[in-house]
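To: structure subgroup
Subject: Chain for Friday's discussion

All,

I'm putting the inputs and outputs inline so they're searchable in the archive.
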Amino acid sequence: MQLPLIKNKEDLIEITNEIGLLPFFENHITGFSVEENISEECWWQGQTEEGGKIIWPAWEWKGEVLRDKSLVYGKFTNGKACFVSLKWWPYLCNIRRNGYDFDSLLDEHAAQIPVCDRLAMEYLHKNGPCLSKEIKYGLTAFDSKGHNSFDGAMTRLQMETYITPVDFVYPISKKTGLPYGWGIAKYGTADGYWGKRACRNRYKEDPQDSYSKLEAHLLKMLPECTDKDIKRLLKSPVTDF
């Protein structure tokens, strides 16, 4: 599979909007990723450094599309990073949530929700968007073993579409006053950042119908793929209650 060459953020947005979603890294569908279709100067080999900050265009685009809300980004495909168009995001939410917002899921199936997932959601509801390290250390119920559960909880909540990154923030050097290093993910609840309407407007239809519509669209856009390829792409870790 060969997608158009991605040379800038506008190319990324256009391709993702056309296909519906686009994994960031190479995956089980050969050729279907940013990594496999990006110009060299925008990938690892093209990175430069300015004032101690690594400039890697593909990484910069993540924060930019989140800030201007042109694409949703997060770990949505097999626990790996993926861009999703605003048009198809509600379908993915309905598929993954099975019609439940997190509060209703908690009301009906509290015993089946991992404690770390619940605590992370409570923290974000209370404090608003926070850096991942703030969430991790803000949850005092976590001991050193609990910290190991944190990463799994954050990935799981993204796969379930309940949280998403909202930006990537760079630390500021006390010496130079300039940003440096790699961006740190800032997370928020999906309903809070993207809006309840954007996340829930397919709740009126059966999640399987949402799946069928998104599957049909992806098979049209990716004619070399099979039903199994798409199922692996869209499958959810969420237990069917």
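Points worth raising on Friday:
The CA atoms of residues 2 and 15 lie 12 Å apart.
The longest strand covers residues 163-169.

D.
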